[in-house]
Amino acid sequence: MTKRNSKVSTAVIRRLPRYYRHLTELQRKGVVRISSSALGKSMGLTASQIRQDLFCFGGFGQQGYGYKVDLLREEIGEILGISRGHTAVMVGAGNLGRALMENFEFGSSGFRLLAAFDVRPDTVGRTIGGAPVLHVDGLEDFLAKNQVDVGLLTVPRCAAQSVGERLVAGGVAGIWNFTNGEVSFPGSDVVVENVHFSDSLLTLSYMISQRSDAQTSGKEPQ
Amino acid sequence: MTKRNSKVSTAVIRRLPRYYRHLTELQRKGVVRISSSALGKSMGLTASQIRQDLFCFGGFGQQGYGYKVDLLREEIGEILGISRGHTAVMVGAGNLGRALMENFEFGSSGFRLLAAFDVRPDTVGRTIGGAPVLHVDGLEDFLAKNQVDVGLLTVPRCAAQSVGERLVAGGVAGIWNFTNGEVSFPGSDVVVENVHFSDSLLTLSYMISQRSDAQTSGKEPQ
């Protein structure tokens, strides 16, 4: 039903989860239908940008009638692969790993966290957020016996590359890298998605710097 | 020296931290000068995109000679406000908060984390990653006595809005929201930067779904 276009730009792809998030929120609020301009307004995009984005994926909606929220959300979810039953394992059940296990809703993104791996004796053997923490020595065995799509890297930065290589050798399709270190797997077509906290903080730094400059130029310093 | 253009698009602003990160890496590798096309290649952008982006900020570099890595990095850092001595406090020293305190290099983004606030008796009074954990009852007093630019929200989602309001009332310019809940402060010009882990995971979900489709259509299923 959904037309997929493999030439879709990275920028559009990056916006799809935002669409999905906003549509989920609209659905929760009971909104049934929304125009491109209203959806754009809530997302900080122009109506024409929205129409262009959605056109890349085969065009939903009907000129002048807007989009049906539930249908558009479902279609975008489909494109994002939410119904594919993706699975994940995590390596590194330190503070960040535990925070994700306890609080992050993997299910909302269509993922199931099968297990976490660590070396600490006080952590291995526990169950956190519904998933067992196993010893990392058993990683290869686990990957051989289970279909695992994504490996989360929440190890210390210095271990990122070597642990990533073990996950890739074990056959994962994607690496979700929280280590703030660069990882690369030449010769493999594994997909790496980095979470760069610093990019987010620097964007905030820019925004508050602009705000501060505007205040300084707009009124007398106190 | 740097020309600032307040009409710069959000997309360009979002790319600036990535430029900064890549240039930092290039500098570390000893690269002195880089062309738009080489910089583009390492960042997954076209040379013309790079020239356009940097033109927004007054244009660095010289046609045919490329960019001086250290100069460009410094200029972009300046635009991002890295040298402004921004300060931050964190509310919520749970797993995620502690992970950030212990592992995130605030200094690399030009920030100093002054303190964290929590309520747990086993956490309040400790020093983590160089910053003290204080009782959240003292938050208002601390904000009154210290210049705090950014408040980090690492509290449970249900507390996000109310704690955010206390930070905004205390005068912070920006909120760095890790709670995965929406916060809004009508009537205030505070800048909110959300870290949406799910957007990142859904992007990865899309990429591995595409990869899987390509494999299925390109070769016989095993």
Structural account:
Two copies of one chain form a homodimer. Chain A has two domains: 10-79, Winged helix-like DNA-binding domain superfamily/Winged helix DNA-binding domain (Arc Repressor Mutant, subunit A, Orthogonal Bundle); 85-198, NAD(P)-binding Rossmann-like Domain (Rossmann fold). Chain A has a seven-stranded mixed β-sheet. A two-stranded antiparallel ribbon of chain A has the order 1-2. Chain A has helices at residues 10-28, 36-43, 47-55, 69-80, 95-103, 139-145, 160-169, 197-218, and strands at residues 33-34, 67-68, 86-91, 111-118, 127-128, 131-135, 150-153, 174-177, 191-194. Chain A contains eight helices and nine strands. Residues 1-5 of chain A have low confidence and may be disordered. By secondary structure, the first copy, chain A, is α/β, with parallel strands linked by helices. The longest helix of chain A has 22 residues, at 197-218. In chain A, α1 (10-28) crosses α4 (69-80). Chains A and B meet through α1, α5 and α8 of A and α1, α5 and α8 of B.
Descriptive key words:
homodimer; 222 residues; alpha/beta; Arc Repressor Mutant, subunit A; Rossmann fold; 2 domains; 7-stranded mixed β-sheet; two-stranded antiparallel sheet; 8 helices; 9 strands; globular; disordered N terminus
Structural class determined from secondary elements of chain A = alpha/beta
Q: What is the chains' assembly state?
A: homodimer
What is the level 1 CATH name of the largest domain in chain A? Alpha Beta
Alpha plus pi helix count of chain A: 8
Per CATH, which architecture of the largest domain in chain A? 3-Layer(aba) Sandwich
The name of the CATH superfamily of the largest domain in chain A reads NAD(P)-binding Rossmann-like Domain
Largest sheet of chain A: 7 strands, mixed
Average pLDDT of chain A: 89
- Which residues of chain A sit in consecutive blocks of at least 5 with pLDDT less than 50? 1-5
SSE ordering of chain A: HEHHEHEHEEEHEHEEH
Cα separation of the termini of chain A: 61 Å
Number of strands of chain A: 9
Helical coverage of chain A, percent range:
40-55%
